[in-house]
């Protein structure tokens, strides 16, 4: 199949496919006229790349998964290099969640102090009496 058909089948632009090819994620062969041609393995590779990118993987992180498919595996995540990337990504997500929980606790603490201070009595301010400063 040609690049336009591949793009339509997987829902990406031809520019995206050329970018993937430049990164070595997919491989086109050239027909007699010099046009790029792709096969079903490229469809599967691009679907895997898109799925991983949707999960937050960088394009470079998808290479071990594509390589795993290219080596004949039905699932892209079963190879040792893919598993290592999964583990790294999970560690990143765990770290991010921990940081966000810390931010949440700090925000909750600040809100609690503000509510207690406000409940203690005057002076009070009303949000509606002071217009917000324009964003700049």
UniProtKB/TrEMBL annotation:
Give start and end of each HTH merR-type domain. Answer: 1-68
User: Which keywords does this chain's UniProt record carry?
Assistant: Coiled coil, DNA-binding, Transcription, Transcription regulation
What is the designated name of this protein? MerR family transcriptional regulator
Which residue spans adopt a coiled-coil conformation according to this UniProt entry? 86-117
Tell me the superkingdom of the source. Bacteria
Organism of origin is: Luteipulveratus halotolerans
Signal peptide as annotated in the record: none
Which InterPro entries does the protein's record reference? DNA-bd_dom_put_sf, MerR-type_HTH_dom, MerR_fam
User: What PROSITE patterns does UniProt report for this protein, alphabetically?
Assistant: HTH_MERR_2 (PS50937)
GO molecular function terms noted in the UniProt entry: DNA binding; DNA-binding transcription factor activity
Q: Which Gene3D superfamilies match?
A: 1.10.1660.10
